[in-house]
Design goal:
- This protein is an alpha/beta fold and 106 residues long.
- 31% of the residues lie in helices and 14% in strands.
- The protein is built from three helices and three strands; from the N terminus they run αβαβαβ.
- Helix 1 crosses helix 2 (42-49).
- The longest helix has 17 residues, at 73-89.
Length: 106
């Protein structure tokens, strides 16, 4: 899913689209230093949209493409591996992962 706007946040549409998944990775291209999630702002909005969903998917944030950098296919495979492992484990390892800056898969 790719959001074209953030305000007003499409809460109902996001919840309906993402509720069917077991894990959701939010790719953030900007950060909010000092924010509650120590990463981007979009994860907070996505989690709030999914709050009332009976079977909420696991959610985590991936900081990628900061400063206009390209997000590579290797980065997407890395993100998919982290989400796959999180779903298998039944929990996410961290709230925020930094693509291109972390090597370990959690």
């Amino acid at each position: 899913m790719k959001l074209r706007f953030v305000r007003p946040f499409p809460t109902t549409q996001v919840a309906e689209s993402l509720a069917k998944f077991k894990g959701v990775g939010v790719v953030e291209t900007s950060t909010s230093y000092g924010g509650s999630m120590r990463g981007g702002n979009l994860l907070v909005e996505v989690r709030a949209a999914l709050y009332d969903v009976p079977k909420r998917p696991l959610t985590t944030s991936f900081m990628a493409g900061l400063g206009g950098d390209a997000v590579t296919l290797k980065d997407f495979y890395w993100m998919a591996e982290i989400l796959t492992n999180a779903v298998k484990a039944g929990r996410v390892g961290k709230t925020v992962y930094w693509a291109g800056l972390e090597q370990a898969v959690a």
